Amino acid sequence: GARLQTDRTDHRRRVAEAELRAEKERAEVTLHSIGDAVITTDDRGLVEYLNPVAEELTGWTTTEAVGEPIRVVFDIINEETRKPVEDPIARCLRDNRVVGLANHTVLIGRTGREFAIQDSAAPIRGADGEMHGVVLVFNDVTETRRMAQEMSYQASHDALTGLINRRAFEERLARVIGTARDDASEHALCYL
Questions:
Q1: 132-125-70 Cα angle (round to 5)
Q2: Which positions ≥6 away from 34 have C-beta within 8 Å?
Q3: pLDDT over 80 at 89, yes or no
Q4: Distance between start and end Cα atoms, the chain
Q5: What predicted TM-score, i.e. pTM, was given to this entire model?
C-alpha cells in the first residue's frame, strides 16, 4: 500500500512538472512571436529575458543581457534634450503600477543606432499578488515620428523657399507678443 501511494505521488509530481514545462514553453514561444519588443526583469530591475525584436533594437542578446541592470540594456534619452529619460522599469517597481514613456523618447542601441520608441512597463505578479518583476513592451516608431515631423514642417514652411509660411509667422508673432506682455519685455519687427 505504501509503495503504491509513493508511485502515485511520484507520477503526479512528474505530470505537474511536465505541465509546468509545457506552459513555460508556450509562454516563451508566445513572447518570441510577438511583433513588439519585450524585455522582462526581476524585482530588482535586472534583465531576465529579451524577445528577438528587443534583441534587434537593443543590440543585446538574451544571453549577454541576463543579470544586467535594465538601464544598461535599455538606454533611453529624450529626443529633443538628449538627456536620459527616467527608467520606466524603476518607476513601475516604485509605483507598483503600469507606466508609459514620455513622448519623444529614443532608444540608443548597443551599436549607437537610435530608434524612436513608445512603450509601457507593467508589473509581473505571482498568484500571491506580490510583484516578481516587470515586463517592458515597446515598439519602433521611428518612421511614424519622422513622417509626423515632416508633415508638421510642410504645414508651417513654404515648399519653394523653406521659409516659414504666414500661419507659422502669425503663431510665432502671437507667442512673442504674449511673452512681451507677460515678461514686460520688448521685441522689434523688421520688415524688408
A1: 45
A2: 51, 53, 137
A3: yes
A4: 105
A5: 0.64
